[in-house]
UniProtKB/TrEMBL annotation:
GO terms under biological process: cell differentiation; regulation of transcription by RNA polymerase II
Localization: Nucleus
SMART domains reported in the protein's UniProt record: ETS
Gene3D superfamilies: Winged helix-like DNA-binding domain superfamily/Winged helix DNA-binding domain
Database matches in InterPro entries: Ets_dom, ETS_fam, WH-like_DNA-bd_sf, WH_DNA-bd_sf
Endpoints of the signal sequence: none
Species of the source: Branchiostoma floridae
Name of the featured protein: Transcription factor Spi-B-like
Domain named ETS: residues: 198-282
Broad class of the protein's primary localization: nucleus
Presence of the UniProt keyword Nucleus in the record: yes
Pfam family, one: Ets
Family: Belongs to the ETS family.
Gene designation: LOC118414344
Classification of source organism: Eukaryota, Metazoa, Chordata, Cephalochordata, Leptocardii
Length: 290
DNA sequence: CGTGAGGGGAAACGAA
DNA sequence: ATTCGTTTCCCCTCAC
């Protein structure tokens, strides 16, 4: 088990120790931040970036997820929204802050570096133990308060995934728009096959983030990805989904819910909550391992 | 009993 | 032709 999150400088160091020639992660992250900052600011988020405030967490070999931490922001979500109290903060991951971006890695070098995975053997379940490295706990605790950490669940890496490493260099994990930090990874086959097509869970997430539909669909516990359809307006959401897909027939909530139950049954993307009209996006930790 | 919601089997559909 | 993510239909259960 690797200990996450780890600092960018440590990732760089271990990658070098592994003999990987690549563009330093810290550089890549800086580029990502530079690209994302204007869009984040448009959404009312500040980005108090310093190197100490950026860490990564990941469970897939081929992917490193970026989180931004700062003293005045929620430790789980990172960024400070100027307009709202800090109960929810998106994770700005290397997905890219774009709904149509399937593969987020900007350069070939970056992609190769990520495919190798930043999980040095010196890591264990107690966290980072590599010599001379900063503890991941301390890298976070320096800028966070413990009482806000209860929702934070470090991602874990299974032995299966360890063994799968480097099986096929062409099989990279791509990722999709995910400002809430739920479900950031999509298998390559899915990514290719669904490229450009509307995806239901993604559509619902967009609805959730759109204030125009706050009466139709809304978060019941955003930090846990739980949301609810309005009983009054659920059919409207379904209709919009049908329109977006260009279905011949009018989409109904009943039919849309059937699709959501498929997600739920397969433990993909989201599950049904035992409450009326409520569902919950799955975190990476809870995603079924295909 | 009626209604609304949850649940799931099975087949069909359409894009890649 | 195949795969995958739905879509559609239909029937059942359950709670209110």
């Amino acid at each position: 088990m690797a200990g996450f999150p780890v600092s960018l400088t440590d990732l760089d160091k271990f990658a070098v120790e592994d003999g990987i020639v690549y563009q330093p992660v810290s550089t890549i992250v800086s580029e990502i931040i530079r690209d994302l900052s204007p869009m984040m600011q448009q959404d009312g988020f500040t980005f108090p970036y310093t190197e100490e405030e950026v860490v990564t967490s990941s469970e897939q070999d081929s992917f490193v997820e970026l989180q931004v931490l700062s003293a005045d922001s929620n430790p789980m979500w990172g960024c400070q929204n100027k307009a709202e109290p800090p109960q929810f903060r998106p994770v700005y991951s290397p997905d890219g802050y774009s709904s149509d971006q399937d593969v987020c890695i900007p350069t070939e070098n970056t992609f190769e570096a990520q495919s190798r995975g930043y999980r040095p053997d010196e890591y264990d379940s107690d966290g980072m133990t590599a010599s001379g490295s900063e503890s991941p706990t301390s890298s976070r605790s320096g800028s966070t308060s413990s009482d806000e950490d209860e929702d934070y669940v470090p991602l874990e890496i299974s032995d299966d995934e360890e063994e799968a490493e480097d099986d096929d260099p062409s099989l990279k994990w791509s990722c999709r728009y995910n400002p809430s930090g739920f479900h950031t990874r999509v298998s390559p086959s899915v990514s290719k096959r669904r490229h450009g097509q509307p995806i239901l869970w993604k559509f619902l997430h967009e609805m959730l983030m759109d204030p125009r539909y706050s009466k139709h669909i809304y978060w019941t516990n955003q930090s846990k990805g739980m949301f609810k359809f309005s009983s009054e307006h659920k059919e409207e959401i379904a209709r919009l989904w049908g329109e977006k897909k260009g279905n011949r027939c009018v989409m109904t909530y009943q039919k849309m819910a059937r699709s959501l139950r498929n997600y739920s049954n397969q433990k993909r993307y989201l599950v049904k909550v035992k409450r009326k009209l409520q569902y919950q996006f799955l975190t990476d930790q809870h995603m079924a391992r295909a």
